[in-house]
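User: My instructor asked us to take a sequence, write out its structure as tokens, and then describe one feature of it. I'm not sure where to start. Here is the sequence I was given:
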Amino acid sequence: MITAAKYSNFIYNNAYIPEHIYTYVQGISDVDAYFSMPYVCYFKEGLLIFVGYPLKDIYNLSSLKVILNEAISKTKCDRVKIILPLWPIEGLSNYKLISKDEYYRLDLNSFTIKSKTRNMINRASRDMAVERTRSISSEHRDLIERFLDEKKIDEETKWIIKNIVSYVAQSDSAWILNGRDAKGRLIVFDIIDLFSKDYIFYMFNIRSLDKYIPGASDLLFYELIKMGIENKKKYINLGLGINKGVSFFKEKWGGRPFISYYLLEKEIKTKINIFSIIDRFI
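Assistant: Let's start with the prediction itself. The structure tokens for your sequence are:
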């Protein structure tokens, strides 16, 4: 497990995707986290989740197959899920491709805010107050429930969002950006994570559709940018593109794809297995 300071410090100094944040994955899924230079992986109840993004030399996957097979042998897992920056990879042809996407990133040293976006920020700032906090409360739980009721979200994503509270409560690096209307009601909040030396991570945006203020998410994102600069981060990892609506928001802020995402899986044994809810994490 990741306990020694030298491992956690190495991961902190080099993390660049959310799955490198082992406190996040553990908080959401209650898994065991392991580190085998230069890879992070997670294990619980027969399922191995292998993060195939090396913490050094992003596209150097020369040791991946050996370390992956060692992890399979040590955990005696029944099933493997692996995420990769490249595909196909020699020696992994027996893995099934499940989905593909791209991670988006915003360079904090060279971004500009378009006039239309700045207008939305100014508009929202007249009707909404922003606050930073480390505490998650019943207000956040209620807004999460309303968000899940209002949005059409697949079951896997719903399960992740329902476990936000556990993640934030256990994390030393997660922050909440609240947006409150003139009556003091919580109408939107973002979860961000300062886990990495060079990156600030844009993790979740939870909002109410019936009380939403135009530009509210832009105002919170602007606050995220300010926090990134204050903490001397170089980049914002914006997460995956997911769909056209989500990627549009990231692109209008100057976010661009910087590394590909491939999710693959493989059954290790032929017997029938019943997997835990952790199977939904990736």
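For the description part of your assignment, you could build on this observation: Residues 106-258 form a domain with the Aminopeptidase fold (CATH 3.40.630.30). Try explaining in your own words what that tells you about the chain.
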